[in-house]
Queue: 4 jobs
Job 1
Amino acid sequence: MITTLKSFGTGQITLPKAWRDKFKTENFIAQETSQGLLIKPLVEDGFYYELEDGEVGISFPLGEDAKVVAANLKKANGKI
């Protein structure tokens, strides 16, 4: 789907509801490319998250038990 987005005075844009509903995230990454601006969803799976282009990362919530963090690191290690 191609659509026109309007920029507000604060620089914010609103993504169409269909796009927001399609991805299970409220976080998106905007990247400048040679063709313009690319907006990609940041899809999270617990501690492990993966971007559409295959880039990955691990997030650690504050106050998480060390055993839980270690278990999630082992789980994510197979995906990274």
Job 2
Amino acid sequence: MNIKELIEQLSTMDPEMQVMMQKDAEGTGYSPLSGCEPSRIYDAKWIAQGPDMDQEEWEEILKMPHACVLFPVN
């Protein structure tokens, strides 16, 4: 889902409703939404390499799309 699709879905709802995040696919837990921020999603192998990345690897990261990250209270 992208931001446009999220806005379209949210625009059909009461703007005073609380925003909750489901903690897992099974729906066994919920948390109030604490906030959101633009972020870059990294592949786990790049995180492990950390500052030892070469220029080519960094350039690949810079090409990756940004994401809006929604984070729960707990």
Job 3
Amino acid sequence: MTIALYARRKRWPLDEVVVRLRHSRVHGEDCADCETKAGMLDVIEREISLKGKLSEEQRAQLRDIADRCPVHRTLTSEIKIRTRLM
């Protein structure tokens, strides 16, 4: 949604955005590019398909915008869950 809104605001010829996600859990020690090496880690693989007559520069910028969307930022930040029984 963030990609489409950005492209619309810029009036870029983006016709469709398709995002595919895969989730898996891996041992930290098996993840070469992960900071955490202990325990299990969640890994989300994301594929973004952009349809439209976009330049390579526009495609690259939209890929960067995907990393700045609120959901991506939430998932890549430290998350604390505080539970209170009522």
Job 4
Amino acid sequence: MATGTTISSTDGRPRKLALVIGISDYQEGKKLPNTVNDAKEMSTALERMGFLIHDNEPKLNLKYKEMRDILHAFADSIKARDMVLFYFAGHGRQWEVC
């Protein structure tokens, strides 16, 4: 079920949708001092540019299940012709998925 922004553009232009995530509080590893502030500031800047922030706020210090659910909800909220931006501030990790 999509819980994201449902506002439609009425002037024919694509909607501008953004998902902003900032994670600084990690169970293992070094805490990141600026990522939450970066996500908040990015949300403000994107709103000034006409972007609709998913659920009207940046997502901060999500756990795995919360992040997975938010990503699915955001993906489900996207419609044809939408302009979509994903911003993540935090540690990155890459692994192969079978």
